[in-house]
Structure formats: structure tokens, C-alpha cells
Write a structure and sequence with these properties.
Mean pLDDT: 96
Number of domains: 1
Distance between the termini: 17 Å
Helix content: 25-40%
Number of helices: 2
Order of helices and strands: EHEEHE
Largest sheet: 4 strands, antiparallel
Number of strands: 4
Strand content: 35-45%
Bound molecules: dioxo(di-mu-sulfide)dimolybdenum
Amino acid sequence: MENIILTVKGMTCMGCVKSVKNVLEPIPGVAVVDIVLESGQVTISFDPAKAGPDQFKSAIQDAGYEVVGNG
Ligand code: 9UX
């Protein structure tokens, strides 16, 4: 298992947090998604053999939020 932290812009309430969680959690290989609303930090624990950062970024962007960086 590997961890990545993405910084996401545009989440303004816990509903947004839930929306982002809901698009990431079903991705095969994703084990844990932890989101801090205030900082926009999205921590994803995943199996690198099955999923990766590009896929996470696309899913977040498709949900209507902006990925502004790693870490
Ligand atoms: Mo909260 Mo996010 O009511 O788009 S869900 S602002």
C-alpha cells in the first residue's frame, strides 16, 4: 500500500468532502480516503499495482474540483 496527498481546491463544506470521497472510494485499489476540509488535503491509501495519481486527479476533476498540487 502507498499513500499520496493531493491538495484540492473548491471543497467548501462537508457535502463536497463526501462527493470527493464518493468518487475516489470506488476506484479499484483504493483502500482509504481521508479528507481535511480546511486544508483541502486529500490523503489516499492505495495499491499502486491497481490505481494511481492520474486516475485520482481525473476523478476529482470530473467531480468538479481542482487538484492544485501534491502534498
Ligand atoms: Mo456544500 Mo459543496 O452544500 O459543492 S456540497 S458547497
